[in-house]
């Protein structure tokens, strides 16, 4: 089974689990004046749905662990085409990078700016003119390159992981 198949199967199993839970909630009890929808078999039906729900949970767990095992063991190399050499990380590392770490790094680069400081001449404390310049403790070109790279990084990671998920065998 490919990684993408396991991920899709987990989603389908979760849907089935929710359907069974709804059936149990709907048919687990009736008032004394109602007729059971499944007749004399209603108790067996509810018990069967509970067992099926339990079996589905076990399968979801098995698949999730296999996906995690695969994600921790499978390395993926991504070329960001930024003039630097391609980067190799495990699928798990790329997932974390995609989830929030790339955004956190972008945030720090986006925080670099001139803070609204205007260059020019201003009146000093004693009324004498002062020449005001912006002193940057960063390289604006580097900042701009990093912002561009980091803004597109999630899309690049997604594209690489989609391909990887389609061709990588699940580690059972």
What does this structure look like?
- The longest helix has 32 residues, at 42-73.
- This protein has 172 residues and is mainly alpha-helical.
- The chain contains 4 helices and 4 strands.
- The mean pLDDT is 95.
- The chain has helices spanning 3-27, 42-73, 91-110, 140-167, and strands at residues 75-78, 87-90, 120-123, 129-132.
- Helix 1 (3-27) runs antiparallel to helix 2 and helix 3 (91-110) runs antiparallel to helix 4 (140-167).
SSE order and pairing:
Blueprint: H1 3-27, H2 42-73, E1 75-78, E2 87-90, H3 91-110, E3 120-123, E4 129-132, H4 140-167
Q: Provide the low-confidence segments as ranges.
A: none
Number of helices: 4
Choose one word for the global shape: elongated
Order of helical and strand elements: HHEEHEEH
N-to-C span: 9 Å
Q: Which class best fits the helix and strand makeup?
A: mainly alpha
* Beta content: 5-15%
Number of strands: 4
Strand order of the largest sheet: 1-2
**Percent in helix:** 55-70%
Overall number of structural domains: 2
